[in-house]
């Protein structure tokens, strides 16, 4: 997938493009339905499948006091969109000046005029342009006027839940990772560079950990212990993860993700890792001392291994999250 940045990028001419537009935060199953329809339309005329998204999230610009916590960053979003079969992604910097553009400027001027759009694929609640002028009736009328097709994808419902970024955020915050995976079509993932911690995991407790610092401005799952998969250098390992503030050791107020990786004995400080969260198995809690904590971690590991052994096609699911 080729990535272009900005509306004035040096675009290669697109051939009979089908285009979809959205924030695509999380690339959940609702977004995947948009990509699937876009690819289907493009392939039907041997054209290009093009997606248009925005960076940063528009609400970070329009409502900076209370922006949404993102499900995935731009790098991860690009990976997932590429995996969906899109051939070109256009990332438009979202600014107040861009927000002031009319629907005509964006739809007729850019999507149709610059990109040569032949089909537009949008979600059922889509609107664009200043004051959200570019709603579904507007798009249908513009399509009739200029000769491009407009395809509205209805909401995708899984087990009674509508696949939406808002719902995914709600479920992640509640630690309901199985439900999150149903809406994403993959496990929820956190990423980061392994940081040096207090070095208590191995010497004091007997279970070394790979530690990630968490930013509370980001979408952080509910504190507790999780069954996880850890990806390091394209290899997948099982593990357990604690998200919290180490209440047993009262000297640490920083929010951390601490992963004990099974069958792994390497120094990976400074290395990037990815952690897929499969299931929350208990609350984080304070123990009387390191011995009691170690016994509980041993029980957590035993339970986690049973859960991991029951997962179908573990390696594929791990690396595709």
What does this structure look like?
This protein folds into two domains: about 1-155, HUPs (Rossmann fold); about 185-320, Riboflavin kinase-like (Elongation Factor Tu (Ef-tu), domain 3, Beta Barrel). Helices cover about 35% and strands about 25% of the residues. The protein has eleven helices and 14 strands. The strands form three sheets. Strands 1-4-3-2-5-6 form a six-stranded parallel beta sheet, with helices on both faces. Helix 1 links the parallel strand 2 and strand 3. The protein is elongated and about 75 Å long. The two termini are about 20 Å apart.
Quick take:
With 321 residues, the protein is of the alpha/beta class. The chain has helices spanning 29-44, 58-62, 74-83, 96-99, 103-114, 136-146, 165-173, 177-184, 201-205, 290-310, 314-319, and strands at 2-5, 18-21, 49-55, 88-93, 119-123, 149-153, 157-158, 161-162, 188-193, 210-213, 224-232, 235-244, 256-261, 272-282.
Quote the CATH topology of the largest domain.
Answer: Rossmann fold
The first-level CATH class of the largest domain is given as Alpha Beta
Helix content: 25-40%
Structural classification? alpha/beta
| Main β-sheet description | 6 strands, parallel
Q: How many E-type strands?
A: 14
Any idea what the CATH superfamily of the largest domain is called? HUPs
Q: Uncertain runs with pLDDT below 50, 5 residues or more?
A: none
Instruction: Please state the CA-atom Rg, rounded to the nearest Å.
Output: 22 Å
What is the number of helices?
11
* Total individual domains: 2
* Overall pLDDT level: 91
State which percent range the strand residues make up: 25-35%
C-alpha end-to-end distance: 18 Å
